[in-house]
Amino acid sequence: MTPKVLLRFVLVTLLLAAMAPLASAAHKRSHKKNPALMPWGTLTQNKGCVIFAQHRKTRGMYWGVAVTTERYNALDVVETIHYTMPRKHYRENQDTLNKLENLAVRDRIKFVNIPGKVTPQKLEEARHMCRSSIVSDPPSHTNH
User: Fold this and answer.
1) Which of 99, 38, 89 is nearest to 59 (CA)?
2) 47, 62 Cβ separation under 8 angstroms
3) Cα angle at 93 between 120 and 103, to 5 degrees?
4) How many CB atoms sit inside 10 A of residue 103's CB?
């Protein structure tokens, strides 16, 4: 190899190595803006589905001379398919998630979380995730 070709090769390699972290950072930023939907509960052979909006809430209180704020994650029911939820709003903590998981197993329900703002595109994608795994009960056989 001639010195010019070797120099070009080294420069191109250094340029590509320098650009790799930038591409990775751009991918991470776009992923944070459009987080993926999160299915959980009974993922296959389910009878119904619940779509939640997952977001952070802030609650503040005024105590005369002081203000306290509390931030927590919340799950709000956006839509249900072949199922009725007992409540429409849930505070996302370990106890609540355990109860919802038990409900999902008991009643064969799939949950889909839409993180962030609920857009028509995300809602349609969540509906598709729900419909793809819902099965109807097999007909009961009776002996005559």
Assistant:
1) 89
2) no
3) 75
4) 17
The rounded distance, in Å, linking the Cα atoms of 51 and 16 is: 42
Query: Residues with Cβ < 8 Å from 59, sequence gap 6 or more?
Result: 69, 70, 72
pLDDT band at 22 (very low <50, low <70, confident <90, very high): low
Quick check: pTM over 0.70? no
Label each residue of 41-89 as H, E or C.
Answer: ECCCCECEEEEEEEEEEEEEEECCCCEEEEEEEEEEEEEEECCCCCCCE
- The phi, psi pair for 34, rounded to 5°, reads -125, 70
Residue 117 C-alpha from the chain's centroid: 11
Going from N- to C-terminal start, the domains of the chain cover: 1-33, 35-131
